[in-house]
Automatic annotation (TrEMBL):
Alphabetical list of Pfam families matching this protein: GGDEF (PF00990), MASE1 (PF05231), PAS (PF00989)
Compartments it resides in: Cell membrane
Name recorded for this polypeptide: diguanylate cyclase
TM regions (residue ranges): 6-30, 51-71, 77-95, 107-134, 146-169, 181-199, 261-280
């Protein structure tokens, strides 16, 4: 590939030297370096040395055969290669892609690298070489080099990039037949207009080509603008070099007219190609937005989660079909309604805070759980994930919310919580649930209430398991709790601490009444034996320790005091009650 590039470079450089070199000096038209720059911008950097070497050889041969001689061949080869290397390196370092006219930023970087750095330095080198070898005027030589290389690079490099990347073929494959016909008509009309300007009109009408150039940029795009510039260069360049066209009216020689034409061509390029590139960029953006909207609608309309768009003040602007199904209200009635009206009043403050947080922190997603505002919402729960929608300036203009039905999740949570709060065998409160209730009662006592805690241990329960088996022991435990529950009649909470040890939390009672309740419980437990399920019955008793809750003592301290009282009851012969010290 590098050999072919070198051959093509030699052909372009030789043609420029043969057709635009006057009075033994430098060529006024130089597009060979544009080829090298286009190749380097599209190739990997590891292939640059081969490209540079092949083009340096081609440059040296062209300069020796058709240029200013063999002595200048090698220095001019290094200068030409250096120009292309500087431009390609700066563009790559500053993130310019393969389309240097793809945006104004990329075009600006390319122009800066070409006109502001590379050819300022390369012109100095070329001026020194030519001034020494031909005894020429350095400023004049530098200006000639600078204008020829800058204008040639500016015009030819983007056009060559279009060809190397297959932009024209891509456009031809994508365009509809009517679009191809329109492009052919516009370019043919532009060619006729250019021929008329440069061959048939006796007045300076160069400006007449600008309107069709802009029209082509709008209608055809990037590839059309490039084709129009090529047409203008071929027709106008031939006319100028042969002494035709409006530039013949300029009081200057042919080389200066050629330079002026290159300047005119560069201005035409800067007018049309960036406009076309910007339009192409906008078309791509529109296609991306259209595709994005299609994906969004497909997601919104077929997802199980509901999607709702809200304005800044919380008014519904869009609601997906799944959200309509979840809410149970027609979309026409939902649009324009305040979303907060759909939420149970108890949870509205949380939803409002979440909405405001999403607007204040656009880059974050915020979640809130709520119940709907409808009569049958005892078991209905929803989760809403909210994120701000931004405009081009990054300002929040609303929010997008995804709503998910989490009723089953909440039901599982309730079931798990209930399972964790109850003893699986007896149905009494678990140790953790009893602890929570005890903490609540301590807080109530600290506020002026009264309550007592009764610890109970079934007497000689181990012998029940040993003689009759654990199944019989389980039946005794279940029946024991049931009799305690019947005797309490909802005035206390029963919790199982482990094995045959239980706790009874008695709210709103003092020690005297708690003692009476304990004796009542003893009577109900001993009123009749417990069936063991094997045809046998067994009578049981229990020992108990009682403590009155103190709002300044911790739950652990009170439990320890009641436990000491229980052990005192066991030590006193069992089947009795003892008070905590």
């Amino acid at each position: 590939m590098s050999v072919f590039t070198g051959l093509l470079y030699f052909a372009i450089a030789s043609l420029a030297l043969l057709t635009s070199r006057f009075e033994g000096g430098l060529a006024f038209i130089w597009g060979a370096n544009a080829l090298l720059m286009a190749e380097m911008l599209t190739a990997r950097m590891r292939s640059w040395p081969r490209l540079l070497l092949s083009c340096m050889v081609a440059s040296a041969l062209a300069t020796a055969l058709f240029g200013i001689g063999a002595l200048a061949a090698v220095p001019m080869a290094f200068i030409n290669a250096g120009e292309a290397l500087v431009v390609a390196y700066i563009c790559r370092r500053l993130g310019v892609g393969r389309q240097i006219a793809g945006s104004m930023r990329e075009l600006s970087i390319f122009v800066f690298a070409l006109a502001g750095v590379a050819n300022v330095l390369a012109g100095i080198g070329a001026g020194l070489v030519v001034a020494v070898l031909l005894d020429g005027n350095f400023p004049h030589i530098w200006l000639q080099w600078y204008s020829g290389h800058v204008l040639g690079g500016l015009i030819c490099t983007p056009l060559l990039l279009i060809l190397l990347q297959g932009e024209v073929g891509h456009w031809a494959r994508q365009a509809r037949p009517i679009e191809r016909l329109e492009a052919f008509g516009l370019l043919s009309a532009f060619a006729l207009c250019s021929w008329w300007i440069f061959y048939r009109v006796d007045y300076p009408m160069l400006f007449a080509s600008l309107l069709p150039l802009v029209l082509i940029a709008f209608r055809i795009g990037y590839a059309g603008s490039a084709a129009a510039i090529v047409i203008l260069a071929l027709i106008g360049g031939t006319a100028t070099m042969t002494g035709h066209g409006p530039l013949r009216l300029v009081a200057a020689d042919i080389p200066e007219r050629i330079q002026f034409f290159q300047f005119y061509l560069a201005l035409s390029f800067l007018l049309s190609v960036p406009v076309a590139a910007e339009l192409n960029s906008r078309r791509r953006l529109i296609r991306m937005l259209r595709d994005s909207e299609a994906r969004y609608r497909a997601f919104a309309e077929h997802s199980g989660d509901g999607v709702i768009n809200l304005s800044i003040d919380g008014i519904i602007q869009y609601v997906s079909p799944s959200a309509v199904d979840q809410i149970g209200i027609d979309a026409d009635r939902l649009l324009g309604q305040a979303a907060v009206d759909l939420i149970d009043p108890e949870y509205r403050p949380f939803a409002i805070v979440t909405h405001r947080r999403a607007l204040a922190h656009p880059g974050e997603a915020h979640a809130v759980e709520f119940r709907p505002n409808r009569p049958d919402n005892d078991f209905d729960w929803y989760e809403m994930l909210v994120r701000a929608v931004l405009d081009e300036q990054g300002r929040a203009i609303g929010v997008i919310s995804t709503v998910r039905d989490i009723s089953r999740h909440k039901a599982r949570q309730r079931a798990l919580h209930q399972a964790a709060a109850q003893d699986a065998l007896t149905g009494a409160d678990s140790r953790r649930a009893l602890q929570e209730k005890l903490d609540d009662q301590i807080a109530r006592v600290a506020a002026g209430g009264r309550a007592c805690l009764l610890l109970i241990d079934i007497d000689h329960f181990k012998s029940v398991n040993d003689r009759h088996g654990h199944a019989a022991g389980d039946r005794v435990l279940v029946g024991f709790v049931e009799r305690l529950r019947q005797a309490l009649r909802g005035t206390g909470s029963i919790g199982r601490l482990g094995g045959e040890e239980f706790a009874v939390l008695l709210p709103d009672v003092d020690l005297e009444r708690a003692e009476r309740i304990c004796e009542h419980l003893r009577t109900r437990v001993g009123v009749r034996p417990f069936p063991l399920g094997n045809g046998e019955d067994i009578a049981i008793t229990f020992s108990a320790g009682l403590v009155e809750l103190d709002g300044s003592a911790s739950a652990a301290t009170l439990m320890e005091a009641a436990d000491k009282a229980l052990y005192a009851a066991k030590g006193s012969g069992r089947n009795c009650l003892r008070f905590a010290a």
